[in-house]
Amino acid sequence: MSYDALVISAHPDDAESQMGGTLAKLSDQGLHMLLVDLTDGEPTEFADAGVRAHQADEAARILGVERLTLGLQDRFLADAMGTRLQLAHLIREHHPRWVYGTGEAYVHPDHAAMVGLTRAAVFLARLGQWERVQGGEQLANQEPWIVERLFFPHCKMEPPWSEFAFAVDVSEVYERKRQALAAYHSIFRVKDDRLLALYEAEDHYYGRMLGVAHAEIYRSAAPLLVETPAVFRPAPHG
Amino acid sequence: MSYDALVISAHPDDAESQMGGTLAKLSDQGLHMLLVDLTDGEPTEFADAGVRAHQADEAARILGVERLTLGLQDRFLADAMGTRLQLAHLIREHHPRWVYGTGEAYVHPDHAAMVGLTRAAVFLARLGQWERVQGGEQLANQEPWIVERLFFPHCKMEPPWSEFAFAVDVSEVYERKRQALAAYHSIFRVKDDRLLALYEAEDHYYGRMLGVAHAEIYRSAAPLLVETPAVFRPAPHG
Amino acid sequence: MSYDALVISAHPDDAESQMGGTLAKLSDQGLHMLLVDLTDGEPTEFADAGVRAHQADEAARILGVERLTLGLQDRFLADAMGTRLQLAHLIREHHPRWVYGTGEAYVHPDHAAMVGLTRAAVFLARLGQWERVQGGEQLANQEPWIVERLFFPHCKMEPPWSEFAFAVDVSEVYERKRQALAAYHSIFRVKDDRLLALYEAEDHYYGRMLGVAHAEIYRSAAPLLVETPAVFRPAPHG
Amino acid sequence: MSYDALVISAHPDDAESQMGGTLAKLSDQGLHMLLVDLTDGEPTEFADAGVRAHQADEAARILGVERLTLGLQDRFLADAMGTRLQLAHLIREHHPRWVYGTGEAYVHPDHAAMVGLTRAAVFLARLGQWERVQGGEQLANQEPWIVERLFFPHCKMEPPWSEFAFAVDVSEVYERKRQALAAYHSIFRVKDDRLLALYEAEDHYYGRMLGVAHAEIYRSAAPLLVETPAVFRPAPHG
Amino acid sequence: MSYDALVISAHPDDAESQMGGTLAKLSDQGLHMLLVDLTDGEPTEFADAGVRAHQADEAARILGVERLTLGLQDRFLADAMGTRLQLAHLIREHHPRWVYGTGEAYVHPDHAAMVGLTRAAVFLARLGQWERVQGGEQLANQEPWIVERLFFPHCKMEPPWSEFAFAVDVSEVYERKRQALAAYHSIFRVKDDRLLALYEAEDHYYGRMLGVAHAEIYRSAAPLLVETPAVFRPAPHG
Amino acid sequence: MSYDALVISAHPDDAESQMGGTLAKLSDQGLHMLLVDLTDGEPTEFADAGVRAHQADEAARILGVERLTLGLQDRFLADAMGTRLQLAHLIREHHPRWVYGTGEAYVHPDHAAMVGLTRAAVFLARLGQWERVQGGEQLANQEPWIVERLFFPHCKMEPPWSEFAFAVDVSEVYERKRQALAAYHSIFRVKDDRLLALYEAEDHYYGRMLGVAHAEIYRSAAPLLVETPAVFRPAPHG
Description:
Six copies of one chain form a homohexamer. Chain A is an alpha/beta fold.
């Protein structure tokens, strides 16, 4: 099946916290998006095994996206060749125009592996001749697929980005983002609400800076190219 | 009279070399643009006084834009309060949604003054109450004007930008840019053609990097804000 | 008279928005601080002339600091020699251990002049022999004064700082900061509350990032030197 | 047993050269510190096997710290999952408030692995539920431990840091650092004394820059947070 | 056998596109250079297996260099310990004064592994006592070798470098570089000529910027040291 | 008269401390160099008026260079148009292949003006037609002069440069540099020797890092261009 975008994350709730507003917005516009979680986020501290999966499904439903879990072990992610190929396989299967993956990160070691994985997956997905590569068999029966753009949302455990490629205004759909995060009630309500407060503070701060209520920020794998500078929304001081 | 964009430059031919393709493209789309040259570019080495003004008019005609010269002395530009106010006055007079001014520059001292001047002019133009400011009289009888975006094209005498906000694909109108630059035949043909070769090499290089024939690159005074990441054109490797 | 710290700003309300929490906190600890406003912030859009001065006095009273206005023209600040000397004179008069001045800024041209002014003032204040310098007479009858540290708070109109020297936890006194800003009711209530919302969003965001409710961030003129790394408060993830 | 700080290094003599002055100072203040060497630094060129271990013990004794060797192979360090867990286990065992690990490094491949290892170890040490993670058994019987701060001293084989988080004045204890390094006489005296000269040159240079005789510099995993800016020592020019 | 320089690349044609002009120039000066390709670049899309090897030999002949292939799998390169040792072994075997390896890269995952590999190989090659290291046997019978300089040419799939250590003027030998690249006719002619156009655009752009026709740019593993600043060629504006 | 190099500084002793070793070395090679001090460094704290001028002459004699003072007021330097023209005039008069001027600096306000002044002077010196520019008369009777390279030595009051263009090995002539600095005995001996200690610490540190006893470091106005990478001296770890 085809999706307009693949969002590759280490854990359930990563995509929601980093770009839940953008997901809600694009979903409302009719785009089909697939969240790919490399792990199931287990073990998590305040819920029995399996609870988080139900929460993740609920969050996906709220945002209007679909979700897939690859089943790697939370806490142990690395930029491994097998995972690169697995992701490239998914890209070739689903034909996304856009891929999103957690931006450069240092705090959580799982997040630190993400930029390398998604960059490699996008690159490998466009290559042919996999039948001639030992170890590349899983890609051999698929057509190459060229992703148009790879973007990296900001991980909210990381320091602020003074420079980022662009922000997306998510003010109108922000309540949906709140609901999607609230679906993970065992993480955010029981454990502590420091994280939820931080998440919203960040979106509010970047939004206010650009004259809107809430915004989500992104870096880009390649420099941005536009048809015209008129695509950019006004900034409060030009 | 109103213009969609004001392009503020130190010398005639700056706007053409930095963003002549974008000008041709926007002009074809029906936008009205005014080039504001702080100086007339005199003295120039291989032409009599006044020749360059005719060349500048011809270049503007080719690009479909209008042109105004403020008459400051070439070689002596500085980020002076009077010039800031003069530019703010022009902005309030012409109501541009966008202002463009030469990006951060070190080689030519005239260019080095440009970012400070245009940033200040955009800021001052949005303020009211000038009748209460001694020295601000020229702005007192104008309404405040809020510019939506201030962008900075790359000066081609400067080192490359490894990071820039966005590029504009100007492949289809590139011949028009060549013609506009060729209008300055006393500068580029007589003196030496090193500059023309450098100008096109840069546009070609950034274009090729992004999968098109020619592109012009920009920085932005404020972070970019978009409605959706779908506004960005594909990049060769995502 | 001696002060422990001088806080040099372009306009009344700059010190409050940038470091009002730090001011309240240090004032509670018994430090004496003098706010030096280079301009009186006039004209301001929603108040008669003179109203802002009363507001500024009220804000200073709330924060427990004193205030002085130099009477330069708002909107026209520049890094001028005369202003450098005027500030150096104030430093020699008041013997502050610390000087604070608005950090690197681009949006408001008045703010853009501040780092150069405060750096130069701190440097000139420590020099002797002014009686031998034509134009330096106002410093001739004062003893040199060596400032221990020059710090730069973040201007809230500017993009975020991904790197800064340190943050100060101002959670406990934040209500005082709110009150001090509220004293400027003609600016923040009438005109629009976008600014107030942005100010608090920033303090909240940097605070949450570091595990507290509100924080104010600073850069430093010179690298930081400490007796022991134990002076630093914990961070949520180390 | 509990330690106030764990200092994680690739080789014996890394901790001494990078932060030996800080160790001596903190030890004099009564703090208990454990040096964790990932390798025993063998083979070393001018001593028989085992000699270096004795030197390392002597250096630790001089600095007033304890020392532990994990027995990985010098020259072959990598940011491996097993080593991350081994270090997390040590952190949970010893409850340090502070962890130190060699800062970003490129010259020696063993050093290049250190930032990733220490960041991951600090993160993993704070997580619970390891009994539910296959491969995480060694952490299952320990309580989670939250490290307050992770700092990175500068590796002296690397280019200078123009930006660092803070420096520690180690002038008064510098002779102790010299003695600790001299304990490694087979490395520094026989082989060549270029390294020792470089080590002291660096400490002297950063010290002089900040107005003291010797200083050691650090980066920080998270932005610094302080109670008050008064914790910082004076700089020569503010 | 001894070589003056080793050029370590992921694929055949990497060395040619990144620094083919420098190779031609140095070869003309009588230097002996060995290209070390980690992979054979197979599978490639528009040629049968083995064709590319012939092309690579032809390109080497044109540039006057020799060539060696290590036989790792294209698309699967990583910064692995075994490859580090294999490269260190080659360095000890061939005694190069200079080593070159693809500079920091993100687009192609094979390229992303190169800086780590070459840095480590150069470091490990200078160490002795390998007979005492389990797993280091292949280096045990070789003398240590100290490489004078490690340089990193710019990969042409990457964004421009606004800062680089130095450029080499390759204008006079540029036709040879074109011929060497043309030897890979199955890659560049059949597939698409976007790459060839990009390669030349880059060399032309950096050249023009420095006043020559074509230049190749480099970063350096260590800061540059010169006998005199007179070694640098003039720049158009100083 | 012609000089091979002009070294433009704010104060006597700036050139000596920043690049005295390079001056001694180039002078020994037969190059003719002129030090241009914008001010006479008066008033200075521990000497009567005029003493410093004698010291400066003595230092120049020791280094084998000539010296000229422009007579601007110490402490009041700015990047003024008149000074730009005065320096351009000197460049056109003395035909230097190389110009040196203090690198980017923030601590001393006089130093902060230097990069702008020297960049502008080099640019203006190459222009013709000054007889047609009101205010440019002093350049009208001189031929244009194109400087080959503009380099910026590091000011020793500033933080270290982690990145610089190149270092010059000055080990063999370092005693001459010490003597030249010692000529300013009223500054360095009486006042305090912190500065002298800092100066030598810096040269020693950068030298040691590159495997020599003392080195002086430089930035460059334009990217470096070389005939061959063989011009660079070895680094300790490649």
